């Protein structure tokens, strides 16, 4: 009789992503606050998608507007460090 391998379940850790702006009411989305906005962009300057950052639809929308506004007045880059 063959020894059956123990069916060990791989534990996939699901870290509940929660919108940072919903969790912390003191955090506000403002195009002038590039420190906050920078957190939601990649080092290439792209906006981090919702599925990665966990930001809710409402705040992601506000964030996108803020980032685009900040880019327009040159507070943030359209394109950041491009690795080659
Ligand atoms: Zn939110």
Describe the structure.
With 84 residues, the protein is an all-alpha fold. The protein has a domain at 20-72: 30s Ribosomal Protein S18, CATH 4.10.640. 36% of the residues lie in helices and 0% in strands. 13% of the residues are buried. Bound molecules: zinc ion (ZN). Residues 19, 21-22, 56, 58-59 line the site of zinc ion.
What's the layout of helices and strands?
Blueprint: H1 20-23, H2 34-39, H3 50-53, H4 57-72
The structure holds zinc ion.
Zinc ion (ZN) binds at residues 19, 21-22, 56, 58-59.
Give the gist of this structure.
The chain is mostly helical and 84 residues long. Helices cover 36% and strands 0% of the residues. It has four helices and no strands.
Low-confidence stretches: none
Q: What's the count of strands?
A: 0
Secondary structural class: mainly alpha
Name the helix and strand elements from N-terminus to C-terminus, one letter apiece. HHHH
Secondary structure tally, helices:
4
- Percent of residues in helices comes to 25-40%
Distance between the termini: 57 Å
Strand content: under 5%
What form results from the Cα inertia axes?
A: elongated
Which sheet architecture does the biggest sheet show? Answer: none
Q: Kindly state the mean pLDDT as a whole number?
A: 89
CATH topology tier name of the domain at 20-72: 30s Ribosomal Protein S18
| Rounded radius of gyration (Å) | 19 Å
Identify the CATH homologous superfamily of the domain at 20-72: Ribosomal protein S18
CATH class of the domain at 20-72: Few Secondary Structures
Reported CATH architecture of the domain at 20-72: Irregular
The set of bound ligands, ions and cofactors reads: zinc ion
């Amino acid at each position: 009789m063959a020894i059956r391998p123990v069916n060990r379940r791989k534990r996939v850790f699901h870290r509940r992503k929660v919108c940072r702006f919903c969790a912390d009411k003191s955090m506000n989305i403002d195009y002038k606050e590039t420190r906050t906005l920078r957190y939601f962009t990649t080092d290439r300057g792209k906006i981090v998608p919702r599925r990665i950052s966990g930001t809710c639809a409402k705040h992601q929308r506000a964030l996108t507007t803020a980032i685009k506004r900040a880019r327009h007045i040159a507070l943030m880059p359209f394109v950041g460090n491009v690795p080659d």
